[in-house]
Prior knowledge:
This protein is α/β, with parallel strands linked by helices. It has a single domain (5-253), classed as Purple Acid Phosphatase, chain A, domain 2 (4-Layer Sandwich), CATH 3.60.21. The protein contains four helices and eleven strands, in the order βαβαβαβββαβββββ. The chain has helices at residues 41-60, 89-104, 125-132, 166-182; strands at residues 5-11, 64-67, 108-111, 136-137, 141-146, 151-156, 191-194, 201-204, 209-212, 234-242, 245-253. The strands form two sheets. It has a six-stranded mixed sheet with strand order 4-3-2-1-10-11, covered by helices on one side. It has a five-stranded mixed sheet with strand order 5-6-7-9-8, covered by helices on one side. The longest helix is centred in the N-terminal third of the chain and has 20 residues, at 41-60.
Amino acid sequence: MARKKRIIACVGDTHVGSRYSLFPEGFRSREGNDISAQMSEEQFKLLEYWQDFVKRADDMGVDTVFLLGDLIQGSHRAEGSRELLTADLDEQMEAAIKLLEPLCKGRKVAAVSGTKYHQSFDMRVHKLIAERLGGKYFGRMGNIKLKGTGVKVRILHGSSRASIYRSSVMDREILFQRAAEALKKVPSVKAIIAAHWHWYAHLELEDRHWIQVPAWMAWFPWEETGYARMQPSIGGVFLTVTSDRIEVERVIYAQVHIADKVEEI
């Protein structure tokens, strides 16, 4: 059987609803309130980056989109719903769909959930978003065989169990994966694709890849002592899969500063 080429756009951590992240222009509430009117100049810059990424996907002929969780900000309970454009999860979900539609329309879509903090305890937000976009929801993680290539990949959001050297975590998890495969306990995968860290990295070994997909959110006030280390990578990743080969193209945009912009006094 002839092998085909698959081109996949990987996106995570859009955190729609936060003042520090992406939001679609022209989004109104059911009552007609222009929620987009609250967007800062820097958020419009993030939106400009997003529109460029979508155009790149069109130009490359992307056929599949992986949505890797934390697509909305959630109610932001720790801050009493501060730092949000809207605390209404239905509005955040609708805004995320509006933002993602140009990337996902006419393409296969696979989605996983994000962290519990950025979801709802009462409904599966990422499942609803995936279904509205015509895609498939895989829960916490998905093992996916890419039709026509013979390649299997695993998609997940990820966790914060990282050491000082994040690449150590990636290498360690690949070691565990190899061991579990040898015992025939888990499916063999050519790549593990994760998000969550808001930070891009790609570890390529002779038999597989670990790909950390960047975010669409600027640095936000969280841990001041980790300020330099926690600066995000803003952008997404394109995967080109042919036969048993995966080529990784990352798209990283210039940093946007919102909470930490330089001000003169």
